[in-house]
Amino acid sequence: MSYSPMQSTVVAGPWQAPPPPPPMPAPRRTPERRKAPPAGDPSMLREGLTPAQLVTLEALEIFRWRLAFVRRPLFQAPIPVLFDQGDTRFVVIREDGTLDETPTLKLRS
Q1: What are the tens digits of pLDDT across the range 45-92?
Q2: What's the domain range around 88?
């Protein structure tokens, strides 16, 4: 038995080249997750505050201070942060209800 390699030939035909594939759509971007959470019910911020913190909070709200947010560190009392009417100053209400007017809290600008 002898082995003879087969030869292939390419025949140019009357047909046209296939059309190019359609362009790939732009990759989908994931939504931005760093947006501020929607402003919910303000009473939700008060949940978990100590009675002393609630009394101090209500007293400050008379003078137009507003509860901006509450930090909730693990295994510690919540830390409510209040801003004045012009958003120029902020204070923290400690667990015993006293005000900390010079907190060591770092805020993003």
Answers
A1: 899 899 999 999 999 999 999 999 999 999 999 999 999 999 899 999
A2: 42-100
Partnered with residue 93 across adjacent β-strands are 99
Overall number of domains in the chain? 1
The amino acid sitting at 104 is T
83 belongs to a structural domain: yes
pTM: 0.61
| Cα separation, 101 vs 88, whole angstroms | 12
Distance CA 77, CA 58 (A): 18
- Report the C-alpha gap between 27 and 57 in whole angstroms: 48
Contact 30, 8 (CB under 8 A): no
Q: Which of 70, 16, 65 is nearest to 43 (CA)?
A: 70
Cα(51)–Cα(90) distance, integer angstroms: 21
As a whole number of angstroms, the distance between CA 65 and CA 61 comes to 5
Name the DSSP letter for residue 61: H
